[in-house]
Write a structure and sequence with these properties.
Layout: E1 2-13, E2 16-27, E3 38-42, E4 61-62, E5 66-70, E6 76-81, E7 88-91, E8 103-112, E9 122-127, E10 137-142, E11 159-166, E12 169-176, H1 186-189, E13 195-202, E14 207-212, E15 215-221, E16 228-229, E17 236-238, E18 251-260, H2 266-286, H3 293-311, H4 315-332, H5 339-356
Antiparallel strand pairs: 1-2, 3-18, 4-7, 5-6, 6-18, 7-17, 8-13, 8-18, 9-10, 9-17, 10-11, 11-12, 11-16, 13-14, 14-15
């Protein structure tokens, strides 16, 4: 089976975007995890208009505080300016598909600029259902020093929080950004490099978990079989919280946001990131930015080999293949690959390499 993916290629030269578009067809079997349990996937690669959901059509309306910028992975991303207008409203979910019971995965790439100040909250994703948000789905930065508003469930200090109603009670996994026991500090997340945040819950194990850059950083265990309560008519918001008058805006860049109705592992999600890079290679070739079809084919073969090595559990081989791909791009830059396209591909391959070999 094939899917059609519309990509908008954005190159920034002197701060001004040069736009091109192409329609690509690629086989979904390149990446089974990209569609297994997929509810929504926002690549943010469009040059304008709605944020298109490549999963189930939960397209997002961008507020005035959101701008399109060069992508962390793929051609585009969205930048939130920490104002009331910094939001993307993706609606309540077509056919209530933001309703989860047995599992959930939220995955995104980010360059955050959260202040970390007391009572400053920056939302990645939030959906507020059932009265006072009893069926809330939340992934956010928080700092309320244990005086959580409004639910009383918060931890102390600077946190990355993942909240769900599990077993009829709303509860948050509040990961301190303290640098202890493998957890990152806020400074490490704001070092200028992109970071991958992955939050999951699996009722079959009872484990709620937060991963950063492919490594498990914090977790909490509930009784096996405990289900999620979620879903309803409230709009889901990327980068803010609608109920409080858009008063918890995100500050920074978000890219490649995916939501699944099952708990996936970092390796399974990495396969989806590889597919994005392969699509970017195809798009660059279609737009003439990779001028020699043999070069595009060779580069795709190397990246595909890296993806296969990763799926086989051979991270070292995957890393070596990605090193080969980066070297290949560097040797072909300006000769057979447009310089700006080459730099974008190098940035994407560098990110993949970092995620394949987590710290």
């Amino acid at each position: 089976m094939n899917t059609t993916l519309r990509l908008s290629i954005v190159f920034l030269i002197g701060g001004l975007p040069l736009l091109g578009q192409n329609v690509l067809t690629r086989p979904t079997q390149q990446c089974p995890a990209a569609t297994q349990g997929l509810v929504s996937y926002w690549s943010f690669d469009e040059s304008s208009g709605l944020a298109i959901d490549h999963g189930d059509g939960n397209n997002g309306v961008l507020g005035p505080g959101v701008t399109r910028v060069l992508g962390i992975l793929g051609s585009g991303a969205v930048s939130f300016n920490n104002t009331f207008g910094a939001f993307i409203n993706v609606g309540p979910g077509i056919n209530n598909d933001f309703s989860f019971m047995t599992g959930i995965t939220l995955s995104l790439l980010t360059r955050p600029h959260w202040t970390g100040s007391l009572f400053d909250y920056d939302e990645f994703f939030r959906k507020e259902d059932a009265g006072n948000g009893d069926n809330r789905i939340l992934l956010s930065f928080q700092n309320d020093n244990g005086v959580c508003c409004p639910d009383g469930a918060g931890g102390k200090g600077q946190l990355l929080s993942f909240g769900l109603n599990i077993g009829g009670i709303y509860d948050e996994l509040d990961m301190p950004l303290d640098g202890m026991n493998g957890r990152p500090t806020l400074a490490q997340l704001e070092d200028g490099n992109p970071h991958w945040i992955l939050a999951t819950y699996d009722s079959s194990t009872g484990v709620k978990a937060i991963y950063v850059d492919g490594s498990l950083r914090d977790s909490k265990t509930y009784p096996v079989g405990t289900l999620i309560s979620s879903g309803g008519t409230a709009d889901a918001i990327i980068g803010n919280w609608e109920t409080d008058g858009f008063a918890e805006p995100f500050n920074g860049i978000i890219d490649e946001l995916r939501i699944y109705n099952t708990a996936l592992t970092p390796d399974e999600l990495l396969a989806a990131q590889f597919t994005t890079v392969l699509a970017d290679i195809q798009s660059s070739r279609a737009l003439g930015l990779i001028r020699n079809p043999g070069i595009a084919k060779a580069l795709s073969a190397i990246v595909t080999a890296a993806a296969k090595a990763l799926s086989a559990g051979n991270n070292r081989t995957a890393t070596n293949k990605l090193d080969t791909a980066m070297s290949f791009v560097r040797t072909q830059e300006s000769k057979h690959i447009d310089q700006i396209a080459a730099q974008r591909l190098l940035s994407e391959l560098t990110l993949l390499r970092a995620l394949v070999t987590p710290s």
